[in-house]
Amino acid sequence: MSDAPIPLTKPVLEEREAExxxxxxxxxxxxxxxxxxxxxxxxxxxxxxxxxxxxSSCTTALHLALLALEIKPGDEVITVSHTYxxxxxxxxxxxxxxxxxxxxxxxxxxxxxKIESALTPKTRAILCxxxxxMPCDLRALLPLAKKNGLPVVEDCACAIGSQIKWxxxxxQIGKPHGDIACFSFHPRKVITTGxxxxxxxTRVDWDQKFRLLRQHGMSVPDSIRHxxxxxxxxxxxxxxxxYRMTDIQAAIGREQLKxxxxxxxxRRHLAERYLRHLASLPDVNLPLEPAWARSNWQSFCVRLPxxxxxxxxxxxxxxxxxxxxxxxxxxxxxxxxxxxxxxxSLPLSESASDxxxxxxxxxxxxxxxxxRVISVFTQAIGRSRNNPx
Length: 389
Ligand SMILES: *Cc1c(COP(=O)(O)O)cnc(C)c1O
Known about the structure:
Helix content: 25-40%
Strand order of the largest sheet: 1-11-10-7-6-2-3
CATH topology of the largest domain: Aspartate Aminotransferase, domain 2
Number of strands: 15
Strand content: 15-25%
Structural class: alpha/beta
Shape: globular
CATH architecture of the largest domain: 3-Layer(aba) Sandwich
Low-confidence stretches: none
Order of helices and strands: HHEHEHEEEEHEEEEEHHHEEHEHHEH
Radius of gyration: 21 Å
CATH class of the largest domain: Alpha Beta
Number of helices: 12
Bound molecules: pyridoxal-5'-phosphate
CATH superfamily of the largest domain: Type I PLP-dependent aspartate aminotransferase-like (Major domain)
């Protein structure tokens, strides 16, 4: 057994991706152009979306999604605190206030039953998160949003390749089932373009708005002017941004997308193995996959026994060559949010942040490596396993 350190995660980047980047570089067109267009088409086909627009990150995707919904200063957007801070930040970029609701501690996702009491006359939208790749309960959320006339943005940063059962069929997360879905291609996610993001939507007018806003509000993209037979002057009807994806990134993304089904299959296999082998550990809570959900297991998060200190467990594992991360943060405890949130506590979110640890999981991980993680974890929490059958 090798004692090389086991990383938390590792992107699957090989010759195919290097070759694709080379192709884009040598084509002479390196920013948003034909590779981006092709990646958008292939991505839309994969998730089953009518429209997909590539951008520079999931953070910028979320910002554009909220701008399309015309979220303004003074507005409130319902979301979770128990998420990566970019979710909440995107609401702040619009000058609006995130209103944090609690999570269901079994799935670490938004507790839909807590939404109605958080609504006010200023509520304009719901920004839900498919946390760590686990689909949130859209089947309960969407009717409630509709009843209250609220659009739904799905933060799918971690959820590419996850599925949800929809009227008896399995469908890809980000189709979207809500109004707009936002994806990330950061290396911590399931496929990567270095950095990058994608926005899917059912509405062509929003898709057009994303395309305008991601490129400075420019009425005619440079790719069109480049091939035009007549001189074209562009206009800038809106205040835009530079949120473009490059063609080098998109070329890599197209290769990553081809690998995605295989990556998800492998991640699900390893997650099932964790679930089976850790099941006999007393007082350890394992993540729950509802019957209507298929996670891509972007992160595999375990809740420690009450008596264990998170930092100590992580340090012991690091000393034994196994890297971990603390569970998902709670945004309301970070400085930009403390005052606005009024110092209120969200006990379920805080407890999840403080008592969970994310274990290594990546497609290249061998079963021997995973067994080492399991044994190091078991020792670090001072427990022993009954032999799994
Ligand atoms: C990673 C992440 C983001 C941000 O994605 P970037 O592409 O890095 O901007 C947003 N939301 C969630 C839930 C994330 O995990």
